[in-house]
Amino acid sequence: MAGGEETRMNRNCITLLLTVALGAGLIGEVRAQSEGRVAFRVGVKQGVSAMQDLSQEAAGYADLASCLTGPAAGYSSAICEAFDANGDGSIDIVDFAAFQQHFGVGGTCFDLEQAEGYGNALLSVNRNDSSIYPQTLVAGELDLTLLVVQGQPGADYSVESCSFQDAFGGEVVASGTLDAAGMASVIIPPDNFLRGQVLSLQARVTDDLSPTGVAMSAASRVKVIPTMSANIALNMAVGSLADVLGPVMDITPNSINIGNLTFVVTPATVFANVTDLSGLVLGDWVAVKGGFNATGGFDAEEIGLEDPQNQVRLDGRVQSVGPAGFAILGFSFYVSTETVFIDDATGDPRTFADLLPGMPVEVRVVVETQFPSATLIKLNTPIELEPEPEPEPEDENEIELPPPPPFCS
Fold first, then answer.
1. 324-382: per-residue pLDDT in tens?
2. How distant is the alpha carbon of residue 1 from its chain centre?
3. CATH of 5-49+108-225, one of 2.60.40.420, 2.20.130.20, 3.40.50.2300, 3.40.50.720
4. Contact (CB, 8 A) for 70 and 85
5. Are 363 and 374 in contact (CB under 8 A)?
6. Helices (H), 68-213
7. Which member of 85, 119, 163, 342 lies 3.0 to 4.6 Å from 95 by CB, making a disulfide possible if both were Cys?
């Protein structure tokens, strides 16, 4: 797809996306079964499972022996995680039996899960650098999963999966053709990877410079968890910080929508350099200063026109922190190896571990992407005096709720 407008829906988000910036190959080809799951049964080659690959050498047996801890103990090594056949967090007799079935069986699935790529083939999962091996990445069962493939412009590609809990290997997750810049972005919808799975993903890209005509990326180890973000842990008090700078996605007589954020325009709303809502059109960039209202939504305190930018900016307090993401303003944002963390007060570098519930932050997100990955997070940003957030009351019979929806800019 070279450009244009496309209406896209995921589990929680229906929004109009302007996909010009991402260019051709945004979606690729995702093979789905009738119930909507990615079809992990049809491959471009006769594959075997990743565990079969690990069993091709005696070293695989030695690694397994060092990981056998029994059902009562867990493991911390990424090497051990490869042998967790049933995904229960321990290496026991069940996993040994699964390994024994494949020991000595030859195969080519992921070339023994290689740590380095071959030439013109790169793969990132959820914007994480696949060259950091054997780092285990996470994907949320309830979240979008973003695959980005790079290679020669116009090359055909496929992304293949080996699941350590699956008897099938080398299945095609997605395939297509790289665009003129040699890139393709593929969004795998929620619920296509199942929690507890441990996958290995690798890209196969045609390459005229390779003797075999094919280049293989490095493998990315992926563990599927319930969600990359977390459920809302803090209820924001009326008036709590809720500012955003971004493009106008929708306008009604009494509201304005920036991405997924709807701000109510009240009689008290001040218009800085535009008369009123009638002076705005879809696509205009605006800075909205606002706050939470009594219904959990947002009231616009001030609206002003701004020059277009390449990133949306959001300011608010952290409401929850998950394994690879966090929530502010009622929406999820994910982090990756590309995310930069800075202490706004001192300018010192920070990390994801420094994010705390209730902390005021500024978040930057690339415009026109359905995958809400933060590029920059400023911690401890200055704010005007406002009510403090209150923790949600605990309910002993509370059921697990889904995470907040991802922000779609």
1. 999 999 999 999 988 999 999 999 999 999 999 999 999 999 886 778 889 999 999 98
2. 22
3. 2.20.130.20
4. no
5. yes
6. 78-81, 93-102, 110-113
7. 85
